[in-house]
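Researcher: Let's try something more involved. This one mixes different molecule types, so please make sure each is placed in the same coordinate frame as the others.
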Amino acid sequence: MQLLQLLISGAAQGCIYGLIALGFVLIYKATETVSFAQGDLMMVGAFGGLLTMTLLGFPFWLSVVAAVVGMGLFGIVLERLVIRPILGQPAFSIVMLTIGVGYLLRGLITMIPNIGTETHTLPVPYAGQVLKLGTLVISAEQIVVIGATAVLCALLFAMFRYSKLGVAMQASSQNQLAAYYMGIPVKRLNGLVWGLAAGVAAIAGLLLAPITFVHANMGFIGLKAFPAAVVGGFGSLPGAIVGGLIIGIVEAIAGFYLPEGFKDIAPYLVVLIMLVLKPNGLFGEKLRKKV
Amino acid sequence: MRFLFKTNYDQDIRLAKHGGHVFWYGLLCLFLLAAPWVIDEYWLAQLTFVLIYGIVGLGLMLLAGFTGLFSLGHAAFLGVGAYTQAALVNAGVPFPIALACAGLLAAAVGVVVGLPALRVKGIYLGMATLAFGFIVEEGIARWESVTGGNKGLMVNPPQLFDWALDSTNEFYFLCLVVCVLSTLAIVNLMRSSTGRAFVAIRDSEISAQSMGIHLARYKTLSFALSAALAGLGGALYAHKIQFLSPEQFSIIQSIDLLLMVVIGGLGSIHGAFLGAIFLIVMPQLIALGKDTLPEAIGQSAGLQGAVYGAVLIAFVLFEPMGLYGRWLKVRAYFQLFPFYRQGMFKRQKSFQKSDRLK
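Model: All components are placed in one shared frame. Result:
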């Protein structure tokens, strides 16, 4: 029973990692760049939810939609302003750029007087409710996280499988030049992918907020989503979620059964083992350059 | 405009290419030697930090700028060096031996990290070093018998047999000596065949391999040398700061180090030092600017992070070759005077440079 309890809380945490990792993977597949700003986008999304819920007083659903759409637009603008001008440069410049964006966002949020430096709770309607199944205690937050992740995955799957937009995104992620020749507007798609990734990050932020709190440094959880993306294989969407679940569950089990301190490094140990054994991850594609 | 007429082959590999180099570097050496009597003690301490970060920057430059392997966990090597030095010096080991041990142990750790890194490339290497950095930081925090854990660890001043180097001036000269020696070592390395092999690996692994460069050996060597320099820098850092705690060697420090080499200018030895100057001077400038800004902006906690982020974005967007690249442009402008063109340093732009197939 205890193990099941651990598995559920690990899976809930893992879904958050998976959602952030999904953002990495979306951007990596489309533009071949790794966004280190994903965690900070998540933080901004959570603050956006806070803004619409408490300051503007929107109802819950409306504020969730507003925060997610707002972050999506922010992602598109971000891509247009800073990412597009340097596309085609070595991947590392873009990594540094997104690190800079992360610093900037975190700094700007902290600079908001009275709000940025405080810790807030997000007033969600399901806060504090628990579900009891025999000896098993599951909080409503965990159920919402797992459920929302499942719904989001289904939506993303449907989009990539059946919509024209999704197919175009897949095409441009496989070969940008060929996609461009086929008449796919690659640049506009890249902008949309950044918007999508920012929107997913905002959802992750809103789901995480009731479990932890909303504060300027909550974006550091993004650093644990990297192992999730690597374990799943850095170019695979289902891999990101599976990787996130693995990392979350390993972390929960390590925190319970192993001595203190292992909880925080368990994800990184897993990723090192993964890189040694199977560098392309569980679902990654193995490609070699031919001369 | 200066023309160099080469009349023998030694001129190609000479350290100082012409009289201008001799003059300006001589002037720099004179300034560095006279610094304790010229500038006040506070700025001397900052100059010492520049030298220490310069050594670490040299190491990271060798790895990231010359070999093209990016490490997101370089603070771990810094930490290994710092704690080795602290533990040995506190146990009474003479300073030079402790310094050598700090460098060697960091190099050994670098080899250990370098080995799995041989199998992975690009972003996966970043992840591996990131993971390693977290593990070392946690290890430092947990190994309390040696490192003092989260409570921190005091470091005794360096002791050269009976002579304690505890004043600001003496320690400055110690750092200067180590820094000059490591700079000369790297400059010499980069004009040897080993250094050229590193650059070849950076530019194209496949062509380097076809030219007979043993990839695994040179990558591991690069990791080891880079980690050794970071270890040396860490050892000096431990003495300078005199109090070590694990959070000094976190991911933030690793990113600061990367920021240093990127802003300084990747692929140039000058860049390591320009970046170190930037990293040390920037907080001072922000502190100075705080008072002139309105209170709501100037006194807020996030100002430094926001400025760092904005500067980093501006550099990547507008000056990808960093401070040293800017200097090259200024120099070319004056050397070629009315003939400098806008596009002389234009970056080559490609539609997509795939990293996945490398």
